[in-house]
Every structure is written in C-alpha cells, then in structure tokens.
Amino acid sequence: MNHILTAEGGCTCKKVRYRLINTPLFTHACHCHWCQRETGSAFVINAMIETRFVERLKGDPIRARIPSESGRGQLVARCQDCKTALWSHYTAGDVLTFLRVGTLDNPNTFPPDVHIFTRSKQSWFALNDGKPQCEAFYQRDELWPESALSRFSAMSQNPLGEMSR
Prior knowledge:
By secondary structure, the chain is an alpha+beta fold. The protein is 14% helix and 29% strand.
C-alpha cells in the first residue's frame, strides 16, 4: 500500500487555507516567460493533483481568467484579500489543479520532477538538480511514473471537477 502524504498551505494573509489529501501526480518547474511575468520570478513550481484531493479548509478564493503561452488561458484562484495565486486550472478544466508549491507550509515537500520551457529560462539560472529538462512541454508517458499515469487515466474517465469542502 502506498503512503499518502498530506500537506497544508494557504495564502500570505492566511484567510484561505487548503489541505492536500494525496500526493501530486507530477511537479513542474515552468520557466516560460508567461510564468515569469505572472510570478515576478524566474519560474513557478506547480504540483499537478486531482482537484478532489484538495480540501479547502477556509476562505473562498476569487477566480480570474488570465492569458497563457498556449493561447487557451488559465483560471487562477487567488485570495480575495492578499491576491496570492494559490492554484490554477488549464485545459483539463476544474478536474486537475496546478497547485502553486510556494503556497505550501513546507514548499520543500514537493520539489520539481521536471523543468519545462527551458528555452526561455533566465540565462543566469543554472539547472543542476539532475531533473529532466524540456525546451517546451513533454510527453506525459515518457516522464510520469506508472502510478501517476493510472491516476490520471482514472481521473479522465470519471472526473470530479469541484474542489472539496
């Protein structure tokens, strides 16, 4: 039986809190210019997890649609007060959450599994953690562990799109 790690996090002002009740499927460090602009940093770290495994403990974030490099946009959940970006949803809809790892109480819990969009990474930032590096995106079947692929397949066949309460 797999050990399921739980983790908690929230916004800067602590008015929105959440708990992960399963481990993420996969974690990206995205170096695209869109993520750099959105975060004001060199990259963002997103842990992909089925939305049904994210429990909102308190607070109701606002959701705003913003542009993305793909042209399809993303729906970003932010605290209504401090405006911290907590997670987003891309083309898979609400069924899959891209959780901002920096909002976890212990962001070291889920380090990146891969670096994506390295073609636009900052030249002064050295990637030396031994993780795969992709100039753009990647083929899921090539990098994800079998357990994550199975969960993703199950999620795709029987989606539960609402965040838990």
